[in-house]
Amino acid sequence: MISGLFGMIHKLEVGAAQLDVNGVTYEITISFKTYLELKELLNQGKHEVRLEIFHSINERGQKLFGFLHLKDKEFFKVIKGLQGIGEMTALKILSFFNPWELYQIVLSGEAKDLEKIPKVKAKTSEKIFFEVRQNLKKLELFLEGTPADPLPTNIDKASLPSPKDRFKETSIQALIQLGFDEKSAQKEVEKVLAKNSFDDTGELVREILKSL
User: Fold this and answer.
1) In the chain, which residues fall in CATH 2.40.50.140?
2) Contacts of 113 (CB under 8 A, 6+ apart)
3) Taking the chain (212 residues) in consecutive chunks of 10 residues, what is each chunk's mean pLDDT?
4) What is the residue-wise DSSP string for 50-61?
5) In the CATH hierarchy, which fold is given to the domain comprising 4-67?
6) Which residues pair with 11 in a beta bridge?
7) pTM for this one?
């Protein structure tokens, strides 16, 4: 079992990273959160990184899931372990909510907040909400001793994406998950944001789809 990899970022795209480890290139599935963090490292000229790995092995094959924080890996394991929530759904949740945000959503009773995740509609959001609420103790145990969401020491906090840039990146990823390529998604988001102001990814995506 692979639990971690240290190497050079060979290729990075939304949803996946290729890591060159001593001449062997590994294809690693990543969350949008990890994508943003790795992209920022590359922007700083830092290509060498260690990823915490969850090595998934089942009858369909093997897959590596990578995280910059060990805490994110453990959160992923908690969520994917809930009934009816698979690895890819858990990764989507991790992309858009940290553990404290998910906990607060469940306490507030607002399952609709989970629909901010691309391709998660009412029925799916209610299922996720129900499973997390039924297993709230597991989330509470995870949150104990997790007061904050620490940054890796090799990331410059001042250079992290602003809320505006993060919203833009989130909207681009939503379009990619709907079938757009990254270049087209970026072009459409920038075109609409140049004309109007949005603070909700769903509304922005709907506006783009209406204009096509």
Assistant:
1) 4-67
2) 105, 125
3) 94 91 95 86 91 92 92 87 84 82 79 71 78 77 60 48 71 75 86 84 77 72
4) EEEEEEEEETTE
5) OB fold (Dihydrolipoamide Acetyltransferase, E2P) (2.40.50)
6) 18
7) 0.67
